[in-house]
User: Which sequence fits this backbone?
């Protein structure tokens, strides 16, 4: 390997983290020995190992507005592939540029094998906390199959403990109906892990449905799995049930109300950083008057 190849290889150690942390400045690119070049958008393809399955419309719309008013703040990262390029980092920026009708986008071209593509895609999304537990589990499984590494080695590459890797991978054993509830944020990871201990499929799915409705806690699920008599599910005041369903419809995620009409707690569930950002945007819209909530005669009216 010649000096130039050595230099470019070491440069990736700076280039990749900077790309994932939105700090890919021209100075960082130059120091890595790479160049920023304009790449035709119709030559770009998504990373086939991208663990993130959904790109919410509101996120893309916000990025489209940003690109339109401020331009592209940093280049995307790509690798050559089959006469074109695959996106390593910056897929949302690429998609937003397509929406704007751009013909090219600034990119840094690097060499990367399939193993690195899987690993980098996981690292990027985990660093940004963009992935839900099942997306992380699926990405981990792909990484391990593609590279042959152990759970411990996979965890070291991604900054996760071996136990955390194992706990995520176990979620893949859940039936599709429960996986859907986990992906939608109706069941959190702790509750999903507790469900795995229930061996009877029908009982498992019944418990999952109750968790999604806020009728079973994790401890009750654990007691059910252990064969002990679980605490009877909480019976929610019918009026509070109506309020909870209305708030849940408004926010687009699972909510629980604990207490009474005159005093209690409202619990709002989210399973990823992007879902939390979406909830914040919805609440800001409410505050700005696009939607409104008012209290009248002890009842919530939306």
Assistant:
């Amino acid at each position: 390997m010649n000096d130039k190849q050595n230099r470019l290889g070491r440069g990736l150690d700076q280039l990749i983290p900077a790309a994932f942390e939105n700090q890919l400045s021209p100075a960082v690119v130059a120091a890595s020995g790479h160049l920023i070049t304009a790449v035709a958008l119709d030559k770009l393809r998504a990373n086939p190992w991208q663990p993130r399955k959904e790109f919410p419309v509101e996120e893309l719309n916000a990025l489209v507005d940003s690109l339109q008013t401020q331009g592209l703040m940093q280049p995307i990262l790509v690798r050559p592939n089959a006469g074109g390029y695959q996106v390593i980092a910056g897929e949302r920026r690429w998609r937003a540029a397509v929406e704007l009708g751009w013909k090219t986008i600034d990119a840094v071209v690097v060499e990367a094998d399939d193993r690195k593509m899987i690993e980098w895609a996981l690292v990027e999304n985990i660093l940004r906390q963009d992935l839900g537990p099942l997306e992380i589990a699926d990405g981990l499984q792909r990484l391990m199959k593609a590279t042959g590494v152990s759970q411990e080695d996979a965890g070291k590459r991604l900054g996760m403990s071996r136990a955390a890797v194992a706990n995520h991978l176990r979620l893949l054993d859940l039936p599709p109906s429960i996986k859907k509830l986990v992906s939608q944020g109706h069941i959190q990871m702790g509750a999903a892990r507790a469900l795995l201990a229930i061996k009877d499929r029908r009982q498992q799915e019944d418990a999952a449905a109750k968790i999604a409705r806020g009728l079973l806690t994790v401890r009750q699920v654990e007691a059910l799995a252990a064969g002990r008599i679980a605490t009877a599910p909480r019976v929610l005041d019918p009026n509070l049930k109506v309020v909870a369903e209305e708030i849940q419809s408004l926010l687009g995620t699972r909510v629980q109300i604990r207490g009474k009409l005159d005093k209690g707690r409202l619990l709002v569930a989210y399973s990823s950083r992007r879902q939390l950002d979406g909830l914040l945007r919805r609440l800001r819209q409410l505050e700005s008057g696009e939607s409104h909530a008012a209290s009248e005669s002890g009842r919530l009216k939306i």
The chain has three domains: 3-113, 175-225, 238-288. The chain has 14 helices and nine strands. The mean pLDDT is 79. The longest helix spans residues 3-20.
